[in-house]
Amino acid sequence: MSENSAVIIEEPKDDRSVLARARRIVVKVGSSSLTSIKGGISEESLTALADVLAAKHNAGTEIILVSSGAISAGLAPLGLVKRPRDLATQQAAASVGQGLLMARYTHAFGAHGVTVSQVLLTADDLMRRSHHANAFRALNRLLNLGVVPVVNENDTVATHKIRFGDNDRLSALVAHLVRADALILLSDVDSIYDGPPAKGAKRISQVDGPEDLEAVTIGKPGKAGVGTGGMQTKVEAAIMAADSGIPALVTSTANAAAALSGEDVGTWFTVNSGRKSVRMMWLAHLAHVQGRLFLDDGAVHAVRDNRNSLLPAGISSVDGNFEAGDAVEMVAGDGTVIARGLVNYSSEELPQMLGRSTVELGESLGRGFDREVVHIDDLVLV
Length: 382
Fold this sequence. Notes:
Elements: H1 17-21, E1 24-29, H2 31-34, E2 35-36, E3 40-41, H3 43-58, E4 62-67, H4 70-75, H5 87-110, E5 116-121, H6 123-127, H7 129-144, E6 148-153, H8 167-177, E7 182-187, E8 192-193, E9 203-204, E10 206-207, H9 231-243, E11 248-252, H10 256-260, E12 267-269, H11 278-285, E13 289-295, H12 297-305, E14 315-320, E15 327-331, E16 337-342, H13 358-365, E17 379-381
Parallel strand pairs: 1-4, 1-7, 4-6, 5-6, 7-11, 10-12, 13-15
Antiparallel strand pairs: 2-3, 8-9, 11-12, 13-14, 15-16, 16-17
Helix pairs in contact: 3-5, 8-9
């Protein structure tokens, strides 16, 4: 398989049966399913999950496991009684816990003859185009070699400015990165409900779009105290995946085997848009925005409604300091961000170009100034 090939199943993706026949699946598991503050890593829970994933792998499905738990695994050995708030202590706990976590995974998968690898990512690895291309090549090669990559955010070196925010979001982006057929988000809750389960709420079996959850109150991190996401981030990650062509399932770790078999468990997020390229996902969700371009109504219509490139004639003002090739936001008159893109000119060059046609600019400023400000191939609506 070449690095540019996409593992895409052509059958309909509107039901869970895609999971039974998928060739490549990203599975994310949360800290609350693997660890506790008091006891560290739960051997029983981790081994049970590894048994399920190894069986699916050995049956021919490529598995990428996005695993939280490094910080949580490091708490007990360091004598910490709760998840630390300060970054330095979080990094210290991750440094201790990541090795422990990988040692357990190596042993548990090894019992089934499956080799695992450690892949640690920061947001910066996927913000830079050359870096995310390297990440794709590495992960794709590991899968071709029959390895189960275990992916986690590199909490030991990640700073607040370059963090994914939560591994749920990371898993959605990894699913795009490796051209996965589906994403499964596992936690200690078996499904999304239309209210508190303890009060008789009903399970939401399927979500066809964000509007299906408008009246639903989504839960925050649970009582275990070891995770950072909660159901809200899982829903956001599932919607992110579904909006970009990858179906997603939210369910409990206890339901992992049933989920991978395509059984009716959890909450299924159906695909509601075509699959975006990895580059567009990078631009939409990870590119570091360096400035803003404010558009007139005509330019908003051209970019948002007609899907055209952005021309200098439609820009009313510029904000920020950026160079050609940097990511910028395109903003409508009411302040709404409508798109992100890679700009062809610096913030010093653009002011003299505003409101002028490319023909006029080419004649007055010379060749090189008769191009689009943001080409449609470097633009994604948000």
